[in-house]
TrEMBL record:
<feature type="domain" description="Alpha-ketoglutarate-dependent dioxygenase AlkB-like">
    <location>
        <begin position="52"/>
        <end position="206"/>
    </location>
</feature>
<dbReference type="Pfam" id="PF13532">
    <property type="entry name" value="2OG-FeII_Oxy_2"/>
</dbReference>
<dbReference type="InterPro" id="IPR027450">
    <property type="entry name" value="AlkB-like"/>
</dbReference>
<keyword id="KW-0223">Dioxygenase</keyword>
<dbReference type="GO" id="GO:0005634">
    <property type="term" value="C:nucleus"/>
</dbReference>
<dbReference type="InterPro" id="IPR032862">
    <property type="entry name" value="ALKBH6"/>
</dbReference>
<comment type="similarity">
    <text>Belongs to the alkB family.</text>
</comment>
<keyword id="KW-0479">Metal-binding</keyword>
<protein>
    <recommendedName>
        <fullName>Alpha-ketoglutarate-dependent dioxygenase AlkB-like domain-containing protein</fullName>
    </recommendedName>
</protein>
<dbReference type="InterPro" id="IPR037151">
    <property type="entry name" value="AlkB-like_sf"/>
</dbReference>
<keyword id="KW-0560">Oxidoreductase</keyword>
<dbReference type="GO" id="GO:0051213">
    <property type="term" value="F:dioxygenase activity"/>
</dbReference>
<keyword id="KW-0408">Iron</keyword>
<dbReference type="GO" id="GO:0046872">
    <property type="term" value="F:metal ion binding"/>
</dbReference>
Amino acid sequence: MEGEETMEEYRVGTLPTLYYIPDFISDLQQSQILHHIYEAPVTKWKSLKNRRLQNWGGVVHEKGLLPQDLPPWLKGVTNKICDMTGLFPSPINHVLINEYLPDQGIMPHQDGPAYFPVVAILSLGSSAVMDFTPHVRLRECTNESDAKSSTSTGNVNNKGDGCSEDRVCGDAADHLPFSLLLKPCSLLIFKDKAYSDYLHGIEDSHIHKLDKKLKYIHQQAQQKHINLRKPMSKTAFRDLALESH
């Protein structure tokens, strides 16, 4: 709670636990981080279909983390995040560095239970739009509720259907898609319902639209996101996602 009170001025949108800090690091610090990223051995990179990434802090598997120490240049970033935000219950010890070229992105996804309840993303290189989409269980519930309301003239009986749980359906109407513009050197943190109830992704296009409006973001350079998280396991961990665009 203390961390959330400290971060109140950085809260964005309607969700109570979504925070955006512009200029979290300086241009010089960004250049230094990028230097270390590209000084890493080629073998440190893993190429995927629509991006490549570096993994620091150990190997995540179904039972948790096989830990390795973070290098000093990453510890400086992770320590600053923990100290300034107060949102991480223990030190960040896992980092994914995702690199996206123009026309590259990542499909809407959830980071999974291992990283719950909080993730931080530091953006480097250029701007990008991150889209947040309600989890499928909430979208299905909203659609079913809309269908019922259009065919019923009396009280709706939810007994026996997928929307019978007030906890889910009572909140479904409040979960709407939205987008955030992530600028270089900025830090995004989302936790709790912003983590569990939404998928997040980046459109694989060199032109990004903000909330589907005519505000386009042209990707002119590589973008990197540094994801900082701490997976849950016998060796607990939090993770930062340094994302480079």
